[in-house]
Structure to design on (156 residues):
């Protein structure tokens, strides 16, 4: 069944009239196993936005830019879409910059890859919220102490 569905998806990707945008993320499990996901986003021949998971697989160390680029490039070639990529969206990991540089060299990109790499807005927003919450930690503790004091005073 997997082979049949993979062949169908491969055929669909070959018929994409335009370019394909990618999203990728890497993470390490609590057992220190590394994983990578790769998702394709594209507009089909009926002008409907489509997204498909191309890979959710283990990523053995090292997790540096060169090995990540090699893995992503291999996946794109496996799917036969290495010449159809327009962009990739990633989080703000330090290894992402070197991965992007390696992929730019390896792929046939529009505009020499100037508009190839995008940062994930949700990840950036999450970082902003986390920083904001750190700033509020002291205030939350003080308000909590005041509420406890007031509740204690009312009980007497």
């Amino acid at each position: 069944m997997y082979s049949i569905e993979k062949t169908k998806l491969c055929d669909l990707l070959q018929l994409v009239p335009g370019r394909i945008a990618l999203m990728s993320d890497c993470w390490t499990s609590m057992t220190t196993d590394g994983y990578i996901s790769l998702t394709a986003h594209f507009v089909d021949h009926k002008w409907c936005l489509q997204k498909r998971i191309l890979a959710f697989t283990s990523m053995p160390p090292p997790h540096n830019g060169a090995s990540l680029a090699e893995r992503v490039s291999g996946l794109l070639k496996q799917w036969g879409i290495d010449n159809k990529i327009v962009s990739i969206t990633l989080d703000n990991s330090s290894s992402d910059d070197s991965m992007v540089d390696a992929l730019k060299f390896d792929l046939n990109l529009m505009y020499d890859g100037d508009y190839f790499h995008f940062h994930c807005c949700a990840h950036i927003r999450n970082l902003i919220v986390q920083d904001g919450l750190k700033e509020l930690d002291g205030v939350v503790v003080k308000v909590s102490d005041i509420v406890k004091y007031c509740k204690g005073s009312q009980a007497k």
Observations:
- The chain has four helices and five strands.
- The two ends are 71 Å apart (CA to CA).
